[in-house]
Predict the structure.
Amino acid sequence: MLKSYKKSVIHAKYNGLYRPNFATSYRSKHFTSMMWQGIYPALTTPLKPDESVDFAWFEKQVEAQINAGVHGIIIGGSLGEASTLTRSEKTALVKLALEVTGKRVPVVMNIAEGSTAEAIQQAREAESMHADGLMLLPPMRYKADDRETVHFFKSVAGATALPVMIYNNPVDYKIEVTPDMFEELAGHPNIQAVKESTRDITNITRMINRFGDRFSLLCGVDTLAMEALLLGADGWVAGLVCAFPVETVALYNLIRAGHLDRARKLYRWFMPLLELDIRPKLVQYIKLAARETGLGTEYVRSPRLMLTGEERTRILAIIHKALESRPTAEELKV
């Protein structure tokens, strides 16, 4: 039998979907809950040739995502080159995102730290900036055991009133957050969502069977997005959305509307591009795609290097082949 878990959500209907009601719920009061539903781009961080942050391009990226109909944005994730961003740069990006969005969609800040104290400090800083939520990774640079990982999550969540999404990605970060661990975390009301990136699609069903709707579940692997949504995931933390926001939102909307034949056709067209998200050089690949669609620059920060030679030619061929058969606006309508 499912335990009784409750979620208190402030929401408003927007184009047939539910989004946080930013018109009546001010950031100065914070959200004890928000709708973790729909498309949440894990935004890239646009850079200049000298590797400094290109804030003008970042503003354009945020506007393009909102215009495409995304439901929130995530700042400073792995795709945003979090490991090379300074704290002041991430803070500046969050502040600019809050200014640009103007309450139209929630702004979520990523925390990926090795120190519990540093993670807590960043959570409090995000709250002081009036960010709308946090995406929280397990401890970095140390393979914490289950007890240590749960303690880390509880410590950070307990230090803020902001809603928290736990990032569960044992493939890349070597720590899996198991259902038993989520059982321990369920007592924290602001731990509300899971970015499900285990690449085990059955985890969607396991989590729903055990917790009902206690946790919102967002697919974190582009190549499993349609499968996860059909199995009951609430949304998708997407990567290729940085280059193809309209197509990403359209796929989500088609699935939600039950137009599965059309969704499958779009997903099949999208798959060669989505596979760029599961490669070690996903940052370079997705930034190159965004450059080709006019939504970003391809500059990266070292130790990453820009693509060259055969590799760049091969990735460009994938992108250009998709662009040649890109769906029309009419085909993307719900």
In short: The chain is about 40% helix and 10% strand. The first strand starts at residue 12 and ends at 14. Residues 6-31 have pLDDT under 50 and may be disordered.
